[in-house]
Amino acid sequence: MKMKADYKNWVPKKMLYILAFLAFLCYLITILLQSLLEAGTKKTIWSFVFLLAAILLTVIFLWMTRMYRAFSYDGKRKLAKEIIDGLAAYVEVPENGLVLDVGCGSGALAIAVAKKNPTAKVLGIDRWGIEYASYSKNLCEKNARAENVDNAEFREGDAIKLDFPDEHFDAVTSNYVYHNISNVNRQELLLESLRILKKGGSFAIHDIFSKGKYGDMESFIRKLKDLGYEKIQLIDTTNGMFMTKKEAAKYSLSHSAILFGKK
What is the DSSP letter of 131? Predict the structure, then answer.
């Protein structure tokens, strides 16, 4: 029997189960309070608190469930697959080139780039933190085998300080990673990723490039041009390329774009 790749979902099923259980528990407590407490201010306040909590948890559960279905590789929308395949098409790799995928997660993008560029060597790195416990190096390697990909490798690494020398890779890519890293200057994160790019190499980084997360990207692009980078574009992916503006807003992905260019 052919093994099937399992790229998981950035919305873990466990989270949905927990939200559903907590909502049910709050509804149950609200009902129990009606018989356990005598009529009065205390009963009214506690009933209101637990009912409000139940409603909020239900709303969050429904919202997360909708996102889970949209991003599922087995669902109808397959938004995650569309993004991965679309971004892989933007990654320019020379013959026998070396590619770095920062924050590879379940290996989806690294494997897609490796399949598209069979002569290249693709390295995916991730710290595989507890917040995404379903992702692991072992999962990435299993997915590569399932896809019959033997030119992708995976190892632990940190986007804040990449353990590679300057000008080491022919291409650098990443998908929805940097905006998740808190208490850092994300423009400096981008510069760290570009540090290890060879002269003439290209980069394609997909993320939520809002001003609140990244600051002024127009001035950053001007800075890159002043440093000698070429063909730099910030390509909106919410205009129908990967998703619509409505979808982006619905899934909290507004300002999604690919930062593309060459060194």
Answer: G
Q: In Å, what is the CA distance from 252 to each residue of 61, 99, 195? A: 15, 29, 30
pLDDT digit string (tens) for 6-30?
A: 999 988 888 999 999 999 999 999 9
Alpha-carbon distance 237 to 251, whole Å?
13
Which one-letter DSSP state was computed for residue 34?
A: H
Q: How far is the first Cα of the chain from the last one, in angstroms, to the nearest whole number?
A: 45
Say how far apart CA 109 and CA 95 lie, in whole Å: 19
Residue from 253, 203, 211 nearest 233 by CA: 203
pTM value is 0.90
Q: What angle do CA 222, 225, 230 make, to 5 degrees?
A: 135
Q: Which 8-state DSSP code applies to residue 263? A: -
